[in-house]
Specification:
about 130 residues, single chain, about 30% helix, alpha+beta, 6-stranded antiparallel beta sheet, globular
């Protein structure tokens, strides 16, 4: 077996076994704000698991308690996620970033279906 092929097989298996975060997970990251400062915020991983594995990073959308620009916001309610929010929150569909596993401060939960799919549709209509 060729060394490169063996290395590729190992890396693929390693990433699949050790991938901590998946699509629809809600995590806390240091989000860069419009004033270029970083502040911990919750965010939803929106990129699919295959892309996350191949690229070794994922795309996330910001969750905020601010209701600015409601036409680009997706309100979150407790039944939409598998944990309790401490305050009224909104997915800010126009604010997307990328990060890696090492940038995640903690995982807080997961977004439930069909709400995740509805949110993705809102992101698409907000941006495109």
């Amino acid at each position: 077996m060729q060394p490169n092929l063996l290395k590729n097989i190992y890396e693929t298996c390693y990433k699949k076994i050790h991938m901590k975060y998946k699509q629809a997970d809600i995590v806390e990251i240091n989000f860069m704000l419009p004033d270029f400062q970083f502040k911990p915020h919750l965010a939803v991983i929106v990129s699919n698991d295959e892309l996350n594995e191949k690229e070794d990073f994922f795309y996330l959308v910001l969750i905020s308690s601010k209701s600015y620009f409601p036409e680009y916001s997706y309100p979150l309610f407790d039944e939409m996620i598998n944990f309790k929010l401490t305050k009224k929150s909104y997915v800010k569909c126009q604010i997307i970033t990328s990060d890696q596993e090492k940038g995640v401060l903690r995982k807080t939960g997961k977004m439930n279906e069909p709400y995740f799919t509805e949110m993705v549709d809102k992101i698409i209509s907000s941006i495109f």
